[in-house]
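G.,

No rush on this.
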Amino acid sequence: MFLTDQNGPNEGPPILVRWTLHRPSGRLTETVVDDRGDEFPRINGRHGGLAYTFVYTAHWGHDVTFGPAMKHDMRRQTTEVHDYGRGRKTSEPVFVRRPGATAEDDGWILSYVYDPDRDLSDVVILNAQDFAGEPVATVRLPVRVPFGFHGGWAPDRITVVE
């Protein structure tokens, strides 16, 4: 992206690539994880800077068209897809850890999903361990949330478990 066109993403969809840095040698290896078009990659925040297995992305196809969400398993090298329905388009998927969770993917995926039939957005909540399954909940919003509006999650309180 932006290799020859500095003004925009006109070189095709972005691909998901994993870079692994071997710090003692300074050697970098690059592995293509998914070349179908992925944007806004997110992981379980507890694994930031650490080893992780799961990456959640929004699909970004040709002509900058969004669509389903994807869950990439970096160990098994597999991808699950959650299709939100005809014409519906997700933005950045955000992982929310279930309190007390021990498994890396024990939690929920929250996404703004645009519904062009209504010209409005929803917050759709998925069970991260049943990623392709039916949503846990859908919150209908009275507005459209623009693409590129980034999301995050912060609990109202943090419980420290020792």
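When you get to it, here's the other one too:
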Amino acid sequence: MEKEKFATELKFFFKKRGIKQNDLAKQLGVTHPVVSNVVNGRDRLGTQSAVRWGELTGIDPLWLMTQGEQGSNPNEQSPPTTPMQHPDIINIPILSPDAAGGFRPNDQADIEQYTIGMMPFNRQIAHNGDVVIPVYGDSMTPKYPAGSYILIRPIEAWREYIELGRSYVLELADWRRLIKIVRKGHDATHYTLDSYNVDYESNEIAKDFINNMWLVVASVHREEL
């Protein structure tokens, strides 16, 4: 959908429902120009913001995120679709434990009580069992910069086989979690860990020092939220 048509549809819905941009901005905790830029098609909403808008307005978050290209037009649907009901959207838990972009201790455990929210993804990208975690450190900049979030998927049989050259989160025997590009080591018992940041050198790690691995499926940068 063209930006102008998206803006027209959104403004019409706001008028029909009596939604005031100033009131919505206050509810969202943002300024009026932030809301105005979205309503006029100048700025796109990220996943978390689209969910919040959907909660407050009843508009399909997928329709908001894609500026009308996907999801249900709010002027053609009654009642509005919620994120949990939309057949193309799956909500993935966000966990507070991080994947360090460098070698540093993690001070929290991946257990249910550390779920801090939900993030919607298209079902073509995310699966049941996936989780979202934040990234800290700058070793994986610019692809996975500090402050971004990554969608990760557990690799059950990682000791038997993984696809080398891809990004993974590794949980080590000392409970650190690292996000690195995993490559072939000097022998069958080691991996080489690389970074996207050229200022970081490669490191080798013994496979026996790894407890678990998750594949990095997708990332969401801070400006997309």
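DSSP finds five helices and ten strands in the chain. Helices lie at 3-17, 21-28, 32-39, 47-57, 61-65.

Enjoy the weekend,
O.
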